[in-house]
From TrEMBL:
Species of provenance: Cytobacillus stercorigallinarum
Protein name stated in the entry: Anti-sigma-F factor Fin family protein
InterPro entries with a match to the protein in the record: Fin (IPR020115)
Domain of life assignment: Bacteria
One Pfam short name: Fin
Amino acid sequence: MAIHYSCRHCGVSLGTVDKQTVQAEQLGFHKLNEEERHEMIQYDHSGNVYVKAICEDCHESLERNPDYYQQDFLIH
C-alpha cells in the first residue's frame, strides 16, 4: 500500500508515503469530516490511497487571489 499526494488544483505530485502500517490518525485523516474525506481521499483496488492536497505554489496563488477558490484547476 502506498499513499500518493497530489495537488488538487494543478495536479503536481507532492510525494508518496510507502509504508505498510501507517494509521489514519498519523496522517490526520481522522480530523476530516465525511464530506472532506470523500472529496480528498480515493482508494484503488490494490489498496493504494490517493490524497488531494495543495502545493505551495497554488497556496500562494490562492492567498494573493482569493477569488481563485471558485476554480477547480489553477494554471501557473
